[in-house]
Amino acid sequence: MVGLDLVAPAIRFYAVNTVNKICYCILYRFAYNEPSESGRQLILCDMIQNKKIEKRGRPRAYDPQVALTRAMDAFWKNGYAGTSLDDIAAATKMNRPSLYAAFGDKQQLYLKALGHYWELRFAEIREALASAQPLAKALMDVYEAALSLYFSGYDRARGCFVIGTAVTEAVEVSAIRASLAEGIRAFDAAFEAHFRIAQQKGELKAEADPAVLAVLATATMHTIAIRARAGIPRSELSELARKAINVICG
Asked: What pLDDT is attached to residue 63?
């Protein structure tokens, strides 16, 4: 019986850089003598193993905007006090530790949801008022956009998120009260700025007070929100908004 005599072991390690990956290659080279009838020497060699190494980032388990919108919907449905962290966890499909890590405690999460709602509403108002339409048409667009939001509940009108949640809590929670006041002032300011431009164009009377009319415009948005939640049909609320616009435009 003839054994194999390993005479020339060698291991080589090298890396090959490519555009998208790094290949680590290990070259094992074994040589041995195997006597044969002809006396020839047989060499076995070159086994190459390539291993692809990919660097992967840890995927985010949630989308912050989606989670915030779902949390807002939970608060919108049940109110601040009536919504538990378990309710929010179920709505966002996140566990409570993940919710806390992403948004803080319940009050902090609510304030973020409230800020998210303000952003949505301000975007709608800015878009409607930025157009070159006549004042009455621009205002009607603002109110119709608001009504679309107020009537966006699955089985019933849900009204305004702010009116339905923040107004109640503002009495006791200073941070919510501050956000509520800031949001109302921002609405008033947006309307007033547009009314001053309209006044310069002759769409409002020279003696009209844009600041007072702005408060009336904001109040109209609030009253249709409350009435929507009280079950008043959208058609009636559209007509109410139209009559308020007639008063504003004089």
From this structure: 85
The alpha carbon torsion through 171, 172, 178, 182 (nearest 10 deg) reads: -30
Q: pLDDT at residue 62 above 80? A: no
What domains, with CATH codes, occur in the chain?
5-53 (no CATH), 64-249 (1.10.357.10)
Sign of CA dihedral 143, 117, 164, 155: positive
The predicted model scores a pTM of 0.72
Which of 149, 152, 84 shows the shortest CA–CA distance to 118?
149
Which of 4-18, 43-57, 94-108 shows the highest mean pLDDT? 94-108
pLDDT at 61: 61
Rounded distance, CA 191 to CA 130, Å?
11
Nearest CA-CA partner of 104 in 134, 144, 68: 68
